[in-house]
Design brief:
With 464 residues, the chain is mainly alpha-helical. It contains 19 helices and 12 strands.
Length: 464
Protein backbone atom coordinates (compact mmCIF):
# COMPACT_ATOMS: atom_id res chain seq x y z
CA UNK A 1 0.00 0.00 0.00
CA UNK A 2 1.28 3.45 -0.93
CA UNK A 3 1.00 5.82 2.00
CA UNK A 4 -0.97 8.97 1.14
CA UNK A 5 -1.27 11.82 3.63
CA UNK A 6 -2.79 15.24 3.22
CA UNK A 7 -2.73 18.71 4.72
CA UNK A 8 -6.07 20.49 4.41
CA UNK A 9 -5.93 24.10 5.64
CA UNK A 10 -8.78 26.58 5.45
CA UNK A 11 -7.77 29.85 3.69
CA UNK A 12 -9.51 32.01 6.28
CA UNK A 13 -6.12 33.16 7.58
CA UNK A 14 -2.40 32.62 7.12
CA UNK A 15 -0.54 29.43 7.99
CA UNK A 16 -0.62 29.07 11.79
CA UNK A 17 2.39 27.46 13.41
CA UNK A 18 0.13 24.65 14.67
CA UNK A 19 -1.01 24.00 11.11
CA UNK A 20 2.61 24.07 10.00
CA UNK A 21 3.43 21.30 12.48
CA UNK A 22 0.45 19.25 11.27
CA UNK A 23 1.68 19.67 7.70
CA UNK A 24 5.19 18.67 8.79
CA UNK A 25 3.99 15.48 10.49
CA UNK A 26 2.05 14.49 7.37
CA UNK A 27 5.03 15.35 5.16
CA UNK A 28 7.49 13.37 7.28
CA UNK A 29 5.22 10.32 7.48
CA UNK A 30 4.67 10.21 3.73
CA UNK A 31 8.20 11.08 2.63
CA UNK A 32 9.74 8.60 5.05
CA UNK A 33 7.74 5.79 3.43
CA UNK A 34 8.05 6.74 -0.21
CA UNK A 35 4.43 7.91 -0.19
CA UNK A 36 2.53 10.99 -1.34
CA UNK A 37 1.88 14.21 0.54
CA UNK A 38 -1.17 16.01 -0.89
CA UNK A 39 -2.48 19.52 -0.34
CA UNK A 40 -6.16 20.42 -0.24
CA UNK A 41 -7.46 23.95 0.28
CA UNK A 42 -10.73 23.71 2.20
CA UNK A 43 -12.28 26.86 0.79
CA UNK A 44 -15.97 26.12 1.27
CA UNK A 45 -16.37 29.08 3.64
CA UNK A 46 -16.70 31.56 0.78
CA UNK A 47 -17.31 34.56 3.03
CA UNK A 48 -13.99 34.19 4.87
CA UNK A 49 -11.79 32.45 2.29
CA UNK A 50 -9.53 34.51 0.06
CA UNK A 51 -6.93 34.02 -2.66
CA UNK A 52 -4.54 36.11 -0.59
CA UNK A 53 -4.79 33.71 2.35
CA UNK A 54 -4.41 30.73 0.04
CA UNK A 55 -1.20 32.21 -1.35
CA UNK A 56 0.04 32.93 2.16
CA UNK A 57 -0.45 29.25 3.05
CA UNK A 58 1.39 28.12 -0.07
CA UNK A 59 4.21 30.57 0.64
CA UNK A 60 4.48 29.37 4.24
CA UNK A 61 4.73 25.72 3.21
CA UNK A 62 7.26 26.60 0.52
CA UNK A 63 9.41 28.50 3.01
CA UNK A 64 9.32 25.54 5.38
CA UNK A 65 10.42 23.27 2.55
CA UNK A 66 7.31 21.08 2.70
CA UNK A 67 6.81 20.17 -0.95
CA UNK A 68 3.53 18.55 -1.97
CA UNK A 69 2.64 16.17 -4.78
CA UNK A 70 0.48 17.36 -7.67
CA UNK A 71 -1.58 20.52 -7.69
CA UNK A 72 -3.45 21.78 -4.61
CA UNK A 73 -7.08 20.65 -4.63
CA UNK A 74 -9.90 23.16 -4.13
CA UNK A 75 -12.67 21.72 -1.99
CA UNK A 76 -15.18 24.28 -3.25
CA UNK A 77 -14.53 23.21 -6.86
CA UNK A 78 -15.73 19.70 -5.99
CA UNK A 79 -19.16 20.75 -4.69
CA UNK A 80 -21.01 18.84 -7.45
CA UNK A 81 -19.26 15.61 -6.47
CA UNK A 82 -20.19 16.16 -2.82
CA UNK A 83 -23.85 16.76 -3.69
CA UNK A 84 -23.88 13.64 -5.85
CA UNK A 85 -22.82 11.47 -2.90
CA UNK A 86 -25.41 13.06 -0.61
CA UNK A 87 -28.16 12.30 -3.11
CA UNK A 88 -26.87 8.74 -3.52
CA UNK A 89 -27.25 8.25 0.24
CA UNK A 90 -30.75 9.72 0.02
CA UNK A 91 -31.74 7.26 -2.71
CA UNK A 92 -30.27 4.37 -0.73
CA UNK A 93 -32.40 5.25 2.30
CA UNK A 94 -29.36 6.09 4.39
CA UNK A 95 -30.26 9.78 4.45
CA UNK A 96 -33.52 11.67 4.40
CA UNK A 97 -35.11 15.00 3.61
CA UNK A 98 -35.73 17.21 6.63
CA UNK A 99 -38.20 20.08 6.31
CA UNK A 100 -37.80 21.40 9.86
CA UNK A 101 -37.27 25.15 9.87
CA UNK A 102 -34.55 26.92 11.91
CA UNK A 103 -37.32 28.32 14.11
CA UNK A 104 -38.71 24.84 14.80
CA UNK A 105 -35.25 23.52 15.64
CA UNK A 106 -34.57 26.39 18.04
CA UNK A 107 -37.98 25.88 19.68
CA UNK A 108 -37.10 22.18 20.18
CA UNK A 109 -33.82 23.10 21.83
CA UNK A 110 -35.36 25.78 24.00
CA UNK A 111 -37.88 23.28 25.30
CA UNK A 112 -35.11 20.74 25.92
CA UNK A 113 -33.17 23.29 27.94
CA UNK A 114 -36.24 24.05 30.04
CA UNK A 115 -36.86 20.35 30.65
CA UNK A 116 -33.12 19.73 31.13
CA UNK A 117 -33.02 17.04 28.46
CA UNK A 118 -30.67 16.58 25.54
CA UNK A 119 -30.66 19.45 23.04
CA UNK A 120 -29.53 17.09 20.28
CA UNK A 121 -32.12 17.67 17.56
CA UNK A 122 -34.24 14.67 16.59
CA UNK A 123 -35.97 15.39 13.30
CA UNK A 124 -39.62 14.33 12.97
CA UNK A 125 -38.94 13.74 9.23
CA UNK A 126 -36.49 10.86 9.68
CA UNK A 127 -39.06 8.14 9.01
CA UNK A 128 -41.83 10.25 7.44
CA UNK A 129 -43.67 8.98 4.37
CA UNK A 130 -42.88 10.88 1.16
CA UNK A 131 -46.60 11.55 0.73
CA UNK A 132 -46.42 13.88 3.72
CA UNK A 133 -43.58 15.99 2.29
CA UNK A 134 -44.54 19.68 1.98
CA UNK A 135 -43.59 21.88 -0.95
CA UNK A 136 -40.91 23.65 1.05
CA UNK A 137 -37.12 23.94 1.35
CA UNK A 138 -35.36 20.97 2.93
CA UNK A 139 -31.93 19.78 3.99
CA UNK A 140 -30.56 16.26 3.56
CA UNK A 141 -29.59 14.56 6.82
CA UNK A 142 -27.77 11.27 7.34
CA UNK A 143 -29.42 8.58 9.46
CA UNK A 144 -27.17 8.12 12.48
CA UNK A 145 -27.48 5.04 14.70
CA UNK A 146 -29.30 5.81 17.95
CA UNK A 147 -28.29 2.81 20.02
CA UNK A 148 -25.04 1.18 21.00
CA UNK A 149 -21.62 2.77 20.72
CA UNK A 150 -18.90 3.40 18.15
CA UNK A 151 -15.20 2.79 18.83
CA UNK A 152 -12.52 4.33 16.65
CA UNK A 153 -8.91 3.25 16.76
CA UNK A 154 -6.52 6.20 16.85
CA UNK A 155 -2.76 5.80 16.52
CA UNK A 156 -2.15 8.54 19.09
CA UNK A 157 -5.22 8.54 21.34
CA UNK A 158 -5.76 4.77 21.39
CA UNK A 159 -9.27 3.30 21.22
CA UNK A 160 -11.86 6.04 21.69
CA UNK A 161 -15.53 5.18 22.24
CA UNK A 162 -18.54 7.41 21.64
CA UNK A 163 -22.14 6.57 22.54
CA UNK A 164 -24.29 6.66 19.41
CA UNK A 165 -27.05 8.44 21.27
CA UNK A 166 -24.72 11.45 21.28
CA UNK A 167 -24.65 11.54 17.48
CA UNK A 168 -27.13 13.71 15.62
CA UNK A 169 -28.49 13.19 12.14
CA UNK A 170 -25.87 15.43 10.63
CA UNK A 171 -26.82 17.69 7.72
CA UNK A 172 -25.14 16.67 4.47
CA UNK A 173 -26.67 19.18 2.06
CA UNK A 174 -28.04 22.57 3.06
CA UNK A 175 -31.38 23.81 1.77
CA UNK A 176 -29.60 25.71 -1.02
CA UNK A 177 -27.99 22.47 -2.20
CA UNK A 178 -24.48 23.24 -0.96
CA UNK A 179 -22.55 20.52 0.90
CA UNK A 180 -21.37 20.87 4.47
CA UNK A 181 -17.72 20.62 5.49
CA UNK A 182 -18.13 17.23 7.21
CA UNK A 183 -19.39 15.61 4.02
CA UNK A 184 -16.80 17.25 1.79
CA UNK A 185 -13.86 16.15 3.96
CA UNK A 186 -14.80 12.48 3.81
CA UNK A 187 -15.47 12.45 0.07
CA UNK A 188 -12.26 14.32 -0.71
CA UNK A 189 -10.14 12.04 1.47
CA UNK A 190 -11.72 8.99 -0.19
CA UNK A 191 -11.35 10.28 -3.74
CA UNK A 192 -7.76 11.43 -3.13
CA UNK A 193 -6.84 7.98 -1.81
CA UNK A 194 -5.79 9.29 1.61
CA UNK A 195 -4.59 6.38 3.75
CA UNK A 196 -3.64 8.30 6.91
CA UNK A 197 -5.43 11.30 8.40
CA UNK A 198 -3.01 13.08 10.74
CA UNK A 199 -4.57 16.19 12.26
CA UNK A 200 -5.15 18.11 15.50
CA UNK A 201 -7.05 16.42 18.31
CA UNK A 202 -9.64 19.19 18.16
CA UNK A 203 -10.98 17.16 15.20
CA UNK A 204 -11.43 13.98 17.22
CA UNK A 205 -15.15 14.55 17.81
CA UNK A 206 -15.56 15.21 14.08
CA UNK A 207 -14.12 11.78 13.34
CA UNK A 208 -17.22 10.08 14.80
CA UNK A 209 -19.56 12.15 12.64
CA UNK A 210 -17.44 11.61 9.55
CA UNK A 211 -17.36 7.89 10.32
CA UNK A 212 -21.12 7.82 9.62
CA UNK A 213 -20.45 8.67 5.98
CA UNK A 214 -17.73 6.04 5.60
CA UNK A 215 -20.09 3.41 7.00
CA UNK A 216 -23.03 4.54 4.87
CA UNK A 217 -20.94 4.49 1.67
CA UNK A 218 -19.13 1.28 2.55
CA UNK A 219 -15.76 2.93 1.98
CA UNK A 220 -12.41 1.87 3.45
CA UNK A 221 -11.46 4.10 6.37
CA UNK A 222 -8.11 5.84 6.69
CA UNK A 223 -5.84 5.34 9.66
CA UNK A 224 -6.49 8.10 12.20
CA UNK A 225 -3.92 10.00 14.25
CA UNK A 226 -5.15 12.97 16.26
CA UNK A 227 -2.22 14.97 17.61
CA UNK A 228 -2.35 17.24 20.69
CA UNK A 229 -2.44 20.99 20.19
CA UNK A 230 0.46 23.37 20.85
CA UNK A 231 0.34 25.40 24.06
CA UNK A 232 2.29 28.47 25.04
CA UNK A 233 4.83 28.46 27.89
CA UNK A 234 2.00 29.20 30.33
CA UNK A 235 0.13 26.01 29.43
CA UNK A 236 -2.62 27.77 27.50
CA UNK A 237 -3.42 27.38 23.82
CA UNK A 238 -0.79 29.13 21.72
CA UNK A 239 -1.98 32.58 20.71
CA UNK A 240 -0.64 36.01 19.78
CA UNK A 241 -0.15 36.91 23.42
CA UNK A 242 2.70 34.37 23.47
CA UNK A 243 4.38 35.94 20.45
CA UNK A 244 4.43 35.03 16.76
CA UNK A 245 1.83 32.45 15.69
CA UNK A 246 2.09 32.50 11.88
CA UNK A 247 4.76 30.69 9.87
CA UNK A 248 5.46 33.85 7.88
CA UNK A 249 6.25 35.70 11.12
CA UNK A 250 8.98 33.20 11.96
CA UNK A 251 10.56 33.71 8.55
CA UNK A 252 10.60 37.46 9.18
CA UNK A 253 12.15 36.85 12.61
CA UNK A 254 15.05 35.22 10.82
CA UNK A 255 14.72 31.59 11.86
CA UNK A 256 16.12 29.07 9.35
CA UNK A 257 13.60 26.70 7.78
CA UNK A 258 15.68 23.64 8.72
CA UNK A 259 15.71 24.74 12.36
CA UNK A 260 11.94 25.29 12.32
CA UNK A 261 11.35 21.83 10.85
CA UNK A 262 13.59 20.27 13.51
CA UNK A 263 11.95 22.17 16.37
CA UNK A 264 8.37 21.64 15.20
CA UNK A 265 9.03 17.91 14.78
CA UNK A 266 10.10 17.76 18.43
CA UNK A 267 6.91 19.52 19.55
CA UNK A 268 4.87 16.52 20.61
CA UNK A 269 7.05 13.83 18.99
CA UNK A 270 10.28 12.30 20.17
CA UNK A 271 12.93 9.82 19.10
CA UNK A 272 14.74 8.87 22.25
CA UNK A 273 16.71 11.83 23.56
CA UNK A 274 17.56 13.21 20.12
CA UNK A 275 17.06 16.97 19.91
CA UNK A 276 19.09 18.02 16.86
CA UNK A 277 18.62 16.05 13.65
CA UNK A 278 18.57 16.41 9.87
CA UNK A 279 15.62 16.05 7.51
CA UNK A 280 16.94 12.67 6.42
CA UNK A 281 17.02 11.44 10.01
CA UNK A 282 13.55 12.85 10.73
CA UNK A 283 12.09 11.05 7.71
CA UNK A 284 13.73 7.80 8.78
CA UNK A 285 12.74 8.06 12.44
CA UNK A 286 9.29 9.66 12.35
CA UNK A 287 6.43 7.37 13.30
CA UNK A 288 3.03 7.84 14.84
CA UNK A 289 3.87 5.88 17.99
CA UNK A 290 6.40 8.55 18.91
CA UNK A 291 3.68 11.20 19.28
CA UNK A 292 2.61 11.91 22.85
CA UNK A 293 -0.94 12.48 24.08
CA UNK A 294 -0.21 15.65 26.04
CA UNK A 295 -0.07 19.13 24.50
CA UNK A 296 3.42 20.36 23.66
CA UNK A 297 4.64 23.71 25.01
CA UNK A 298 6.27 26.16 22.66
CA UNK A 299 9.65 27.29 24.02
CA UNK A 300 11.39 30.14 22.18
CA UNK A 301 14.74 29.44 23.88
CA UNK A 302 14.73 25.85 22.64
CA UNK A 303 13.74 27.05 19.18
CA UNK A 304 16.67 29.47 19.12
CA UNK A 305 19.06 26.80 20.36
CA UNK A 306 18.02 24.35 17.63
CA UNK A 307 18.12 27.06 14.97
CA UNK A 308 21.60 28.11 16.09
CA UNK A 309 22.83 24.55 15.62
CA UNK A 310 21.34 24.38 12.14
CA UNK A 311 22.89 27.71 11.14
CA UNK A 312 26.30 26.54 12.37
CA UNK A 313 26.01 23.27 10.44
CA UNK A 314 24.65 24.76 7.22
CA UNK A 315 26.50 25.25 3.95
CA UNK A 316 27.66 28.87 3.60
CA UNK A 317 26.19 29.39 0.13
CA UNK A 318 22.84 27.94 1.27
CA UNK A 319 22.85 30.30 4.26
CA UNK A 320 23.48 33.28 1.99
CA UNK A 321 20.49 32.27 -0.14
CA UNK A 322 18.26 32.02 2.96
CA UNK A 323 19.49 35.37 4.27
CA UNK A 324 18.59 36.99 0.95
CA UNK A 325 15.08 35.49 1.23
CA UNK A 326 14.87 36.68 4.86
CA UNK A 327 15.67 40.26 3.84
CA UNK A 328 13.10 40.08 1.03
CA UNK A 329 10.44 38.80 3.45
CA UNK A 330 11.13 41.81 5.68
CA UNK A 331 10.94 44.17 2.69
CA UNK A 332 14.52 45.20 3.50
CA UNK A 333 16.91 46.49 0.85
CA UNK A 334 18.71 43.65 -0.92
CA UNK A 335 22.45 43.24 -0.44
CA UNK A 336 24.77 44.53 -3.14
CA UNK A 337 27.05 42.14 -5.02
CA UNK A 338 29.97 43.40 -2.91
CA UNK A 339 28.02 42.77 0.31
CA UNK A 340 26.97 39.31 -0.87
CA UNK A 341 30.59 38.43 -1.64
CA UNK A 342 31.72 39.79 1.72
CA UNK A 343 29.00 37.96 3.60
CA UNK A 344 29.91 34.68 1.95
CA UNK A 345 33.57 35.28 2.76
CA UNK A 346 32.78 36.12 6.38
CA UNK A 347 30.20 33.40 6.98
CA UNK A 348 32.71 31.15 8.71
CA UNK A 349 33.14 33.66 11.55
CA UNK A 350 29.52 34.77 11.73
CA UNK A 351 27.41 31.63 11.81
CA UNK A 352 28.76 29.75 14.81
CA UNK A 353 27.27 32.10 17.42
CA UNK A 354 24.15 33.21 15.53
CA UNK A 355 20.68 31.86 16.27
CA UNK A 356 18.86 33.89 13.62
CA UNK A 357 19.69 35.47 10.29
CA UNK A 358 19.12 38.86 11.88
CA UNK A 359 22.00 38.16 14.26
CA UNK A 360 24.24 37.27 11.32
CA UNK A 361 23.38 40.56 9.63
CA UNK A 362 23.93 42.41 12.89
CA UNK A 363 27.33 40.80 13.48
CA UNK A 364 28.26 41.51 9.87
CA UNK A 365 27.88 45.23 10.54
CA UNK A 366 31.65 45.69 10.38
CA UNK A 367 31.73 45.16 6.62
CA UNK A 368 28.11 45.62 5.50
CA UNK A 369 28.19 49.27 6.57
CA UNK A 370 31.54 50.50 5.26
CA UNK A 371 30.43 54.13 4.99
CA UNK A 372 28.44 54.35 8.23
CA UNK A 373 30.75 52.83 10.83
CA UNK A 374 29.61 55.00 13.72
CA UNK A 375 30.93 54.14 17.18
CA UNK A 376 28.48 52.94 19.77
CA UNK A 377 28.81 54.31 23.31
CA UNK A 378 30.85 51.40 24.75
CA UNK A 379 33.28 51.21 21.87
CA UNK A 380 33.83 54.97 21.88
CA UNK A 381 34.96 54.77 25.52
CA UNK A 382 37.50 52.10 24.58
CA UNK A 383 39.18 54.48 22.16
CA UNK A 384 40.85 56.63 24.82
CA UNK A 385 44.03 58.62 24.03
CA UNK A 386 46.33 55.79 25.17
CA UNK A 387 44.56 53.22 23.01
CA UNK A 388 44.56 55.54 20.01
CA UNK A 389 48.30 56.04 20.40
CA UNK A 390 48.96 52.30 20.45
CA UNK A 391 46.76 51.74 17.39
CA UNK A 392 48.67 54.45 15.53
CA UNK A 393 51.85 52.36 16.04
CA UNK A 394 50.14 49.31 14.59
CA UNK A 395 49.07 50.96 11.35
CA UNK A 396 52.48 51.21 9.61
CA UNK A 397 53.40 47.69 10.67
CA UNK A 398 50.34 46.32 8.84
CA UNK A 399 51.52 47.76 5.54
CA UNK A 400 53.96 44.97 4.71
CA UNK A 401 53.18 41.89 6.86
CA UNK A 402 51.74 38.69 5.46
CA UNK A 403 47.94 38.93 5.66
CA UNK A 404 47.17 35.70 7.51
CA UNK A 405 45.77 35.03 10.96
CA UNK A 406 48.95 33.70 12.57
CA UNK A 407 51.02 36.69 11.47
CA UNK A 408 48.36 39.22 12.50
CA UNK A 409 47.92 37.63 15.93
CA UNK A 410 51.68 37.63 16.48
CA UNK A 411 52.01 41.27 15.46
CA UNK A 412 49.25 42.52 17.76
CA UNK A 413 50.48 40.32 20.65
CA UNK A 414 53.98 41.76 20.30
CA UNK A 415 52.61 45.30 20.29
CA UNK A 416 50.60 44.60 23.44
CA UNK A 417 53.66 43.12 25.18
CA UNK A 418 55.75 46.14 24.23
CA UNK A 419 53.28 48.34 26.07
CA UNK A 420 53.11 46.07 29.09
CA UNK A 421 49.59 44.82 28.48
CA UNK A 422 47.87 41.66 27.24
CA UNK A 423 46.44 40.87 23.84
CA UNK A 424 42.93 40.80 25.28
CA UNK A 425 43.29 44.37 26.56
CA UNK A 426 44.28 45.63 23.14
CA UNK A 427 41.55 43.63 21.38
CA UNK A 428 38.85 45.94 22.82
CA UNK A 429 39.99 49.19 21.20
CA UNK A 430 41.02 47.31 18.07
CA UNK A 431 37.48 45.90 17.86
CA UNK A 432 36.03 49.36 18.40
CA UNK A 433 38.13 50.73 15.55
CA UNK A 434 37.27 47.97 13.13
CA UNK A 435 33.58 47.41 13.97
CA UNK A 436 32.42 50.46 15.88
CA UNK A 437 30.99 48.09 18.47
CA UNK A 438 32.05 46.41 21.66
CA UNK A 439 30.73 43.04 20.51
CA UNK A 440 31.73 41.55 17.16
CA UNK A 441 33.48 38.57 15.60
CA UNK A 442 37.18 38.10 16.37
CA UNK A 443 39.27 41.13 15.45
CA UNK A 444 41.52 38.92 13.33
CA UNK A 445 38.55 37.45 11.46
CA UNK A 446 37.37 40.98 10.75
CA UNK A 447 40.81 41.99 9.46
CA UNK A 448 40.92 38.99 7.15
CA UNK A 449 37.41 39.68 5.83
CA UNK A 450 37.74 43.41 5.14
CA UNK A 451 41.33 43.18 3.93
CA UNK A 452 44.54 45.17 4.46
CA UNK A 453 43.50 48.50 2.92
CA UNK A 454 40.19 48.80 4.75
CA UNK A 455 41.76 47.68 8.04
CA UNK A 456 44.46 50.35 7.80
CA UNK A 457 41.94 53.02 6.79
CA UNK A 458 39.77 52.29 9.83
CA UNK A 459 42.70 52.27 12.22
CA UNK A 460 43.95 55.56 10.86
CA UNK A 461 40.53 57.12 11.29
CA UNK A 462 40.17 55.76 14.83
CA UNK A 463 43.64 56.87 15.95
CA UNK A 464 43.43 60.34 14.43
Amino acid sequence: MTVVTRFAPSPTGSLHIGGARTALFNWLYARGRGGKFLLRIEDTDRARSSDENTQAILDGLTWLGLDWDGEPESQFARADRHAKVANALLEAGKAYKCFSTPEEIEAFREKAREEKTSTLFRSPWRDADESTYPDAPFVIRIKAPREGATTLQDEVQGNVTWKNEQLDDMILLRSDGTPVYMLAVVIDDHDMGVTHVIRGDDHLANAFRQNLIYDAMGWDKPTLAHIPLIFGPDGKKLSKRHGATGAAEYQKLGYPAAGMRNYLARLGWSHGDDEFFTDAQAKEWFDLDGIGKSPARFDFKKLENICGQHIAAADDAALLHEIQAFLAAKDAAPLTDTQNDGLLKAMYCLKDRAKTFGQIIDNAHFFLNFCTLDQDEKSEKMLDPVSRSILSELTPQLQTVSWDRKTLEGLVAALAEAHGTKLGKLAGPLRAALAGRSVSPSVFDMMLVIGRDETIARLEEASA
